[in-house]
């Protein structure tokens, strides 16, 4: 069994999708780390019986917050970290320490449309193919090595709302699967 920690900042639909799938596997979601006190993701975690840690970045240096996150990850014996709407760029010090052990999902086909408006930017581009990218996290904004991509063809009359719904369904299906494969690799390495 390998341990997964999830870092999130928002409502937590990806967090919930990941947690529900991981609970059916032989792996464990050891904790949620959240940087926003009022984020709904913390309620989701409590309902699922997952430990919640709040780490504030407010009025403190990023390195202090990341040291606290690192300490939690170590205390929870975390093997892999998944970002699920965690809206912070991690420092090189953190990403180098956790190299190839921090994974993110992005709602566009990277390297196109990085950043917090990936769905809108890809939709507004007129690209025929829309989709998601799962990648390792480095110190850049959605610049880490790509692990997996999946796309769908835009329909005639596709709206931003319908595209967003398809992207979220795709995220909720593929992200947990990829995370389980990566967690399985930790078991093989032991």
TrEMBL record:
Q: What is a single cellular component term in the Gene Ontology annotation?
A: cytosol
Active site per database record: 106 (proton donor)
Catalyses which reaction? N(1)-(5-phospho-beta-D-ribosyl)glycinamide + (6R)-10-formyltetrahydrofolate = N(2)-formyl-N(1)-(5-phospho-beta-D-ribosyl)glycinamide + (6S)-5,6,7,8-tetrahydrofolate + H(+)
Q: Which InterPro entries does this UniProt record tie to the protein?
A: Formyl_transf_N (IPR002376), Formyl_transf_N_sf (IPR036477), GART (IPR004607)
Residues engaged in binding (6R)-10-formyltetrahydrofolate: 60, 87-90, 104
Keyword annotations: Purine biosynthesis, Transferase
The answer, when asked if Transferase is one of the entry's keywords, is yes
Site label Raises pKa of active site His, positions: 142
Instruction: Name the GO terms of the biological process aspect.
Output: 'de novo' IMP biosynthetic process
Q: Which residue intervals define the domain Formyl transferase N-terminal in the entry?
A: 3-178
Give the EC number: 2.1.2.2
Family under the similarity heading: Belongs to the GART family.
Q: Which HAMAP family match?
A: PurN (MF_01930)
Q: What is this protein called?
A: Phosphoribosylglycinamide formyltransferase
- Species in which this protein is naturally found: Thiospirochaeta perfilievii
């Amino acid at each position: 069994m390998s341990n997964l920690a999830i870092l999130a900042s928002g409502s937590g639909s990806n967090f919930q999708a990941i947690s529900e799938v991981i609970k059916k596997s032989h792996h464990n979601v050891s904790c949620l780390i959240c940087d926003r006190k009022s984020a709904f993701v913390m309620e989701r975690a409590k309902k699922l019986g997952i430990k919640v840690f709040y780490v504030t970045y407010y009025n403190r240096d990023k390195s202090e917050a990341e040291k606290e996150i690192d300490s939690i990850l170590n205390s929870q014996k975390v093997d892999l970290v998944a970002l699920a709407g965690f809206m912070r760029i991690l420092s090189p010090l953190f990403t180098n320490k956790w190299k190839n052990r921090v994974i993110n999902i992005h709602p566009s086909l990277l390297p196109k449309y990085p950043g917090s408006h990936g769905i809108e930017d890809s939709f507004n581009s007129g690209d025929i193919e829309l989709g998601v990218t799962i990648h390792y996290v480095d110190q850049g904004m959605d610049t880490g090595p790509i692990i997996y991509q999946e796309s769908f063809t835009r329909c005639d009359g596709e709206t931003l709302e319908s595209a967003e719904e398809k992207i979220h369904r795709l995220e909720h299906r593929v992200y947990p699967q990829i995370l389980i494969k990566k967690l399985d690799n930790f078991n093989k390495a032991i």
